[in-house]
Design a protein that fits this description.
This protein has about 450 residues and is an alpha+beta fold. It is built from 15 helices and 16 strands. The chain is about 35% helix and about 20% strand. Strands 8-16-15-9-10-14-11-13-12 form a nine-stranded mixed beta sheet, with helices on both faces. The chain has a five-stranded mixed beta sheet with strand order 3-2-1-6-7, sandwiched between helices. The protein has a two-stranded antiparallel sheet with strand order 4-5. β6, α6 and β7 form a beta-alpha-beta unit.
Length: about 450
């Protein structure tokens, strides 16, 4: 097991041997050494200085070249006994840093953790909101390359201590999907597991499971196969939210929802999909999602501009049926929690423009019917219409936390460029698409429904 993050209990990384219900700690990397702090420093220097924006660096990196390798090698030094160390004089955590400052919106303002030596080597840091130049793209690329090298170095060390093909990873750094795909390609670890809430939000379940096994004497094992552990709202609450829209609302049988949703997506609509219990962790995995046709070239820019209102360089994820992964992707990865960024096969990249990043990758979610039958059936129905069992999946939000309540979903639908909404069993569309929706519903029939498998609860 390898856990790595910015910090936790004065430790930034921990390696352990796990056998049965026991965890034997083999090594720890203590603060101020931290790959998470390294990545955050680069993130802030590029101008993404809000809390938790490191994922933007990963999305920007493919647009750059590794022009700053020498500096990044100074920033993170790799060794045998210490695994890794940060370059002295490059990071403010070595001097204690500062905290507790709020910005004008009462959000925690992060102190910059890069020092003036970054400016001496790289120039002035970018100011938030200013143009992203090729320099920032190159810094992102060099940061990502060094992070991957450090990760693989640590795992090589771990494999010497525990020569197995199985690996469990956790921590905020384990959310780096590009590195996760490389682990499968370039290390002896071929069977990996990353749970859905891999950052601080997963501490609760880890602590509970440890106490259950090591204090209470429990022996039952738990394998978390899905992420749908969040709140669920009853039909009356969902209906009340739908009716409050003032739009024409259609109640449809649950068995017909996948076919109806698939037809709307194939017709070019961007669909809000709100079903069942919300996902636990940072990813929307098919219950609080915005869905679209990945084969339509305009979809990426349209959703970024009119719905998500975010940077245009940021990619969207493909959700694909598990048995079809090897058809479209170079690595046959089972990634139910969207934790791997995988190369799309060259022959499919032009046919999947909305989910193919500039470097030919996609942040993959592969899905089995048993974990989410309704979402699986929608993708399967879309595959029957398009020939490709993949949908574009992004989180149901607009520069805010992922929607949770039916009212939040409705408000996001009303104020953004979303075209249609499946809110539980209630379906509605913007006025310009009502004729299409009505026609889709008229042609929906029992032949579109498949026998329902047991739902995830």
């Amino acid at each position: 097991m390898f856990a790595f993050d910015a910090s936790g209990d004065f430790v930034s990384a921990m390696a352990a041997r796990c056998e049965g219900t026991k965890i034997e700690v083999l090594n720890r990397v203590h603060l101020p050494e931290s790959l998470g702090f390294f990545y955050t420093a680069a993130c802030q220097f590029i101008g993404f200085d809000g809390f938790g924006e490191e994922y933007k660096v990963m999305g920007l990196a493919p647009y750059g070249e590794d022009r700053y390798a020498d500096f990044m090698n100074l920033a993170v030094r790799l060794g045998k006994a210490d695994w890794f160390k940060l370059g002295r004089g490059l990071f403010t955590m070595h001097g204690g840093g500062e905290s507790g400052v709020l910005d004008e919106n009462n959000r925690v303002a992060q102190a910059h953790i890069f020092t003036k030596r970054w400016k001496e080597a790289l120039g002035e840091p970018r100011t938030r909101g200013s143009e992203l130049t090729q320099r920032e793209k190159d810094i992102a690329r060099s940061c990502q390359v060094r992070f991957e090298s450090a990760t693989l170095h640590c795992l090589s060390q771990l494999h010497e201590l525990v020569p197995t093909g199985r690996l469990v990873s956790a921590g905020g750094c384990a959310l780096n999907g590009v590195a996760n795909a490389r682990i499968l390609r370039d290390t002896p670890f071929k069977q990996t597991y990353l749970q859905a809430a891999s950052a601080d939000d997963g501490l609760s379940v880890g602590a509970a499971m440890w106490a259950f096994h090591n204090v209470a004497g429990g022996t039952k094992r738990f394998h978390m196969k899905h992420a749908y552990w969040g709140p669920e709202h009853n039909a009356a609450t969902i209906e009340a939210a739908a009716r409050s829209s003032g739009m024409e609302v259609f109640e449809v049988p649950r068995a017909l929802l996948p076919a109806i949703g698939a037809k709307l997506i194939r017709a070019g609509l961007v669909l809000g999909w709100y079903q069942g219990r919300s996902e636990w962790g940072p990813r929307a995995l098919g219950n609080r999602s915005i869905l679209a046709d990945p084969t339509q070239p305009q979809m990426k820019d349209l959703i970024n501009d009119k719905i998500k209102r975010r940077e245009m360089f940021r990619p969207f994820a493909p959700t694909v049926l598990r048995h079809a992964v090897s058809t479209y992707f170079e690595q046959d990865v089972f990634s139910p929690f969207m934790m791997h960024v995988v190369k799309i096969k060259p022959e499919w990249r032009e046919r999947l423009p909305a989910i193919t990043h500039v470097d030919g990758t996609g942040r993959l979610q592969s899905i089995e019917r048993e974990t989410n039958p309704l979402y699986f059936d929608l993708i399967e129905a879309f595959g029957h219409l398009s020939g490709i069992p993949i949908v574009l999946n992004t989180s149901f939000n607009e520069n805010e936390p992922i929607v949770d309540t039916p009212h939040q979903a409705l408000q996001c639908f009303l104020r953004t460029g979303l075209d249609a909404l499946c809110l539980g069993q209630y379906v509605m569309s913007k006025p310009e698409h009502q004729a299409l929706l009505a026609e889709t519903l008229r042609h929906a029939s029992a032949s579109d429904a498949r026998p329902r498998a047991a739902e995830v609860t």
